[in-house]
Design a protein that fits this description.
- α1 crosses α2, α2 runs parallel beside α5 and α5 packs across α8.
- This protein has nine helices and seven strands.
- With about 240 residues, the protein is α+β, with helices and mostly antiparallel strands.
- β3 and β4 form a beta hairpin.
- It is elongated, with a radius of gyration of 18 Å.
Length: about 240
């Protein structure tokens, strides 16, 4: 069975556990079902291409060899990437690099930009960031893995359905010379069969370079575990 078929099978297991529309599959009784289901939802298409270059390895969170071999979530990302690569490769990206960067803009100016990206553009699900305030070497990290900017943009655009998702800013956007942070609450509609919607909340921290003021890293912290987020999955839900 190919990787895409495995992915769809795992999704069917998730559907059988969260709706009455499907008869539970025998695979649901296996001990690995929970991990497989989690992987089906969070095997993000943002994953690095392992064959690209050695820099990808340097960006990954450090784990020991045993953890690396036994990490089903990381392994499943490769399955999702294979299943969605054809679609993702056809999606338009923002310019590979901005011709001009907004160097050393004031905290007030940066706050206005990030506020617009969150509230007006819902960039957490659309990936429509104001790229001119990010360093091109910026890394993007969530509770799953670490990505380059281009990988994060491509993966986000391919993974979520903005029209079926909701992103809400909780509180204000806080800006200092060294970082930007804000809290969010969101419902994410996944661009996969049955279009499941998962809900979560958390915090984003954007680290700024002390010399240029550009954002050099994006770090997303979830209030819930991956498994708890998965349990919120609804099928056919309209946000």
């Amino acid at each position: 069975m190919n990787q895409k078929a495995n992915f769809i099978l795992a999704l069917l297991v998730a559907a059988s556990q969260t709706t009455e529309a499907f008869t539970p599959s025998p695979i649901a009784k296996q001990g690995s079902c929970s991990c497989t289901t989690i992987n089906a939802f969070f095997g993000f298409g943002r994953k690095y291409d392992r064959g690209a270059d050695n820099q990808d390895t340097d960006l990954r969170p450090q784990t020991n060899q045993a953890d690396e071999r036994n990490n089903p979530i990381r392994d499943s990302r490769r399955l999702f990437l294979s299943a969605s690569a054809a679609t993702a490769s056809l999606l338009p990206l923002r310019a590979v690099a901005s011709a001009e960067k907004q160097i050393n803009i004031s905290d007030a100016e940066l706050k206005k930009i990030i506020l617009s990206d969150v509230v007006d553009k819902s960039f957490l699900v659309t990936a429509d960031i104001t790229r001119s305030v990010y360093d091109e070497s910026a890394t993007f990290t969530d509770e799953i893995d670490v990505y380059t900017m281009d990988k994060w943009i491509k993966g986000t655009k391919s993974l979520f359905i903005p029209s079926g998702s909701r992103v809400s800013l909780v509180g204000d956007v806080n800006v200092t010379p060294t970082e930007v942070n804000f809290r969010f609450d969101e419902d994410l509609m996944f661009n996969i069969p049955f279009k499941p919607v998962c809900s979560l909340s958390g915090k984003v921290v954007l680290t700024r370079d002390e010399n240029s003021g550009l954002i050099t890293s994006y770090r997303e912290y979830w209030d819930q575990s991956v498994n708890d987020v998965l349990k919120t999955a609804k099928f056919g839900k309209k946000v």
